[in-house]
Amino acid sequence: MDARLNFFASPTAGKVLKHFMAAGKALKDSPLPTATQELVALRVSQINGCAVCIDMHTKEAAAAGDTPVRLNLVAAWREATVFTEAERAALELAEQGTRVADAAGGVSDDVWANAAKHYDEEQLTALVVLVSFMNTANRLNIITQQPAGNYEPGQFH
Fold first, then answer.
1. Radius of gyration of the chain from its Cα atoms, rounded to whole angstroms
2. pLDDT value for 21
3. CA 151 to chain centroid
4. Among the four residues 46, 68, 134, 148, which has the most C-beta atoms within 10 Å?
5. What is the mean pLDDT of each run of 10 residues along the chain (157 residues)?
6. What whole-number distance in Å separates Cα of residue 129 and Cα of residue 67?
């Protein structure tokens, strides 16, 4: 499978993606726990059906020490007992933030309050930006049909 566009060969994409990747690096360096970041990135990508991001974030999470059991259960996190209450709050916020068109109301006050119980303001900021960032990355990759399967952990950071 070939991508519709080669972002690495495009001068326009190069200019834009340089800043986009810098934003991704800033998120990685944020105080939001790495495990939470990868679980959220994976869940958003699952919802959107972004194969290349699912590939990337599954491998990054495993490289960071997350277990196959947890990674296999992200799609069914509500019924799984392997996630902390804080991770569950982040996953719920990520789902509602991703499904804004489906949910019509966006992120509910209850979901926001639950996340705020587990994360401080700086971590919440990183979480919100991460959800938005991942939705953008998913759309870029889905529109251009970027192929999945060849990602190596640390490849872009």
1. 15
2. 92
3. 15
4. 134
5. 86 92 95 98 98 97 97 98 98 96 85 98 98 97 93 85
6. 25
Contact between residue 10 and residue 139 where contact means Cβ atoms under 8 Å apart: no
Rounded to the nearest angstrom, the gap between the alpha carbon of residue 2 and the centroid of all alpha carbons in its chain is 24
DSSP per-residue string spanning the chain: ---SS-TTT-HHHHHHHHHHHHHHHHHHTSSS-HHHHHHHHHHHHHHHT-HHHHHHHHHHHHHTT--HHHHHHGGGGGG-SSS-HHHHHHHHHHHHHH-HHHHSS-S-HHHHHHHHHHS-HHHHHHHHHHHHHHHHHHHHHHHTT---S---TTS--
Q: How far apart are CA 68 and CA 54, in angstroms?
A: 14
What is the rounded CA–CA span in Å between residue 147 and residue 50?
A: 10
Neighbours of 150 (CB within 10 A): 8
Buried b (16+ CB within 10 A) or exposed e, 74-98: beebeeeeebeebbbbbbbbbbbbb
Q: What is the rounded distance in angstroms from the CA atom of residue 148 to the CA atom of residue 77?
A: 23
What pLDDT does 58 receive?
A: 97
The residue written with tokens 């949910």 in the block is: 103
Using a 10 angstrom Cβ sphere, with 0-12 exposed, 13-18 middle and 19 or more buried, the burial of residue 19 is: exposed
